[in-house]
Amino acid sequence: MAGWDQYITNLTSQGITHAGIFGTDGSRWAASPNFPNINNIKDDLPKAFSAKPEGIMVNGEKYIFIRSAENFAILRKSADAMVIVKLNQAFIVSIGINQKPEMIIGATNKMGEYLKNCGF
């Protein structure tokens, strides 16, 4: 889905280190170069929105849940942050290396709202 690459470029141009869009079935719609491996992405991303979220393994390292809301979740690993935005048909995953989650939340949520309004 080459058309999705423009959304990844938009997010990474705002300072996000890695960004990806994944279907709810775990399929990769688009991702930045060298996007980290999220083990069991199909199972892990929905966990972010469960009543008792657990961490998510990324490249063999665990990101711990900090906060979740109806449509987004924030995770941390040391100085790194991850934001997951839930759409109707997909998830947007943004990872910032040595970045605070506030910047990542704003850019990822804005993209999520746009894509939701487009029916995704």
UniProtKB/TrEMBL annotation:
Main subcellular location of this protein, as a coarse class: cytoplasm
GO cellular component, one term: cytoskeleton
Keywords of the record: Actin-binding, Cytoplasm, Cytoskeleton
Subcellular localization(s) per the UniProt record: Cytoplasm, Cytoskeleton
Highest taxon, organism lineage: Eukaryota
GO MF: actin monomer binding
Family matches, as Pfam families: Profilin
Protein family according to the UniProt entry: Belongs to the profilin family.
Name of the protein described by the UniProt record: Profilin
Species the sequence originates in: Rotaria sordida
